[in-house]
Records
---
Amino acid sequence: MASAVERFDDKASETFESVGRTTVYRGELLRHPVYSRALHWMVALFFFLALFSGFGIYLPWLFRWFTPIFGGGQLLRAMHPWFGLGFVVFFGLQALNWLQPMIWTPADSNWMRNMKKIVSSEEKMEAPDTGFFNAGQKVQFWEIVGGCTAYLITGIILWVGAPTFGRILVAISYVIHDISALIMLGGIFIHIYESTFGQPGTFQSMTRGAVSEAWAWTFHPAWYKQMTGRDPVQACEEARRQMTTGNKP
């Protein structure tokens, strides 16, 4: 029987699919439906709003040039906690949406042991047991879960202030808040690289919602097999043979 979380997530997905559309062409697979893509971009939007407004608060001497975009320093300070809350809320919904495929498995431990070869592209295809998400993506997901928890707790302390929580706890919260932001920012840089140059074709999975079968069997072979019932290595070899035959005069 489906849990309350699964029923909520399914209902939300159905609602978004009724107002949006994902076109999957021949030779492609559905990767992210409308609901997942909407959550992803809302998380990204509120993350960068919180990040830049935070820079404007903590480093005004360096980032004062964009403070007027938010209506000035006073309004910036008032909006920053709401941007952070928006980020936490939308990522919370995304976490519910991706909770099951983000569960750690023995395949992920194997991926981590071979991470150097994978990152350096020594292996042209990911390990055969790499599913919907690989171990690197799962590490980042759980890092953001931890970061969101730290944001929420320290953010509430900073929002309410010293009269309630005391100056020492507020000072500690500032440090934890800032360190969490920097760690998450580093992870975002890696995420942007991997979704563009690192794994070409990934970005369109969050714009159009579909990926090529070649992308699927290269980066997520187990997921490809689950979706198509075909062996990813055989599918790759067959595609190569067809390209070779088609290029002959």
---
Amino acid sequence: MAGTMRVPRTRGALSGILLILLGLWGALLPLAGPYFDFGFAPDDTWVYNTDRLQLSIAPGAAAALGGLILLFSANRAAGMFGGWLAALGGAWFAVGPVLSPLWDARGVGAPLGTTEGRHVAEYLAGFTGLGVVIVFLAALALGRFAVVGVRERLLDEPEPSGSNTTQPLVYGRYARENQPGQGPPPTGDQHVAGEPRWER
């Protein structure tokens, strides 16, 4: 079982790096977005409130932490945990703003864009689209960690006890047909190494 629990450390590296970057993007967009005139009101940087913690910072931290676990994990169970953590963070990015009115949350703020296209882009980049991409990458990583490769399977299978893989050396043109116990006894130069010669 120990062999199948070990995985190459590079198995979740790419997904882990992307999830870290996307998690940081989602967590910091409401706080640092006004630097680039892209994000959510108010038009001031590093404005913190509870709604931003619940809807952006917490799921972004979950996605980034899951990606960090995937990046350095060499254990199948740890990698699966990191994948699920990132997937939950991405799912909350996608559905959190829809469910937030249930506890009277005001949201992270109105989009800073002045056109309808900018509004759509900011919502997609900060919530729905971001969450879908994070869930996709997390699911991809979960699939990779769920597959048991040939190398892990070989590490998990012990060699049979008492098995002797050493084959005796056989000399002579027809030695393969004249193994001990098969066919007539060897004559002349047909001799199985390690076996006594037959007396004529």
---
Amino acid sequence: MKHRGPPKGTSHSQGSGAGKGPRRRSGSAPQTPAKAVSVPDESLDTALAADKAAALKLAPVSRETEARLDRYIALLREWQAKTNLVASSTLPHLWTRHIADSLQLVALAPDARSWVDLGSGGGFPGIVLACVMAEFPGAVVHLVERNAKKAAFLREAIRVTGSPSMVHLAEIGDNVDRITGPVDCVTARALAPLHQLVGFAEPLVHLGAKALFLKGQDIEAELTEAAKYWSIQPQLHQSRTGDGWIVELAAIERRG
């Protein structure tokens, strides 16, 4: 297995899981329960304004896409009070930690118009990608989510942003091979260990899709584990927004 790996000596513990649609997520922005941080609305508004400016320098978008993302963030803040969509500690950094982190995938698949996002959760990267794809006639983003409350949020986010998306409320492993039509790119963020993601994505990659997985620092260990089950030649891209990595796969073959 050949790949461009991260520098030696980096380490970052990630969660692991087993079976279809794991409840414990692992990736570039782990959904680890964080101690709630109470931030006054005015202070949060100020922090988000500065964070947005920094994020859009990292990943510029059109005014139309920016407006859709603004509506999405407003909705997420409203729902966050009753549904845990992101770690509370990351709220002041929604734009850099979550929006820009998702937007960077567009540059890695500039011609992709049909996307499948596995385990969309609070909409990263799926809804963010859909906000961009709204500029391209015929584009679509499939959002696969097993949690009914989060699926309801995703449907409302689609309505509020006017983005070309559809929600599939289903177990991840049971649904990806049922998506009809061509798929250009399959994504996942903070969902599962790499060897499981590869298994979920394999049916779509076999049909011509490219996989882009947002992962954390401990990517070498995940690649080693994945190589036990899959023959892959990953290309690694260092994240613009942190210490994580994006794993790009153009082909997947099961070992044995």
---
Amino acid sequence: MKRRRWTWLILAALGLALGVYHNQRVHYGEVNPITALIRGIILSMQRGVYAATATTEQFFTTLTHARAVLREHDQLAIENAYLKQELERLRLVETENESLRQLLSLRPHLPHEWIGCRVIASYPQPGQQTLIIDRGARDGVLAGAPVVAGEGLIGVVEHADPNAAVVRMLVAPRMAVSVKVLNAQKASTGVCEGRGESLLLLNFIPPEAPLQPGDRVVTAGLGGKYPQNLPVGVVERVWLDRQYSVKKAWVRPAVDFEQLSVALVKRGR
């Protein structure tokens, strides 16, 4: 207990002495080194706190700005995706309108009665190569009826249900159509055959026929199944089959079977 009392007495005396010393220095306008030391320490602490506060404020400001930039980026990405989708839709509409214009110009040149239809499904893969149209037996569509697009011949109806029909594409196996090759020197006749590939095989062309890449191929109209002069495709490569003494060629179809949306189908027999 005595030690504690002496300790408090000594601290009190020191405090009193420091207070008297401080008052005297202030009274005479002199700088108090202890006060200056304390002020220096406090000022250093204030500067540190201010710097830390400023850095924290800058950090949160930067974070807020970054979040705003990310939100703006996300919004722009959504708008960009929407615009791409809208452009694709407009492109498809324009393509369909062009097909409709071509069909309207083609229809007066087709014999017999033809009706418009929409392609509701397409299976261009090898081994299938069929499509489905929204016209069937109730509309007078029968198996064997030819189907055309504005670009040219598509194929033939394989099977007709009451409200829809399956059409076998021209490139499918076992499909064949008599054709004319419109060469600048001389037109030649032959047969275009489907091979289950993307190209048609042009066969049975006389060896002396002036056949070359770029020649247009159209229907010959032989047999009456297909109307004359419907575009079939364009010659891509020609060779001579010496075994059978005929010229052959690969023909690129006039119709893009994967992009079909509208067509015409012959009605009745």
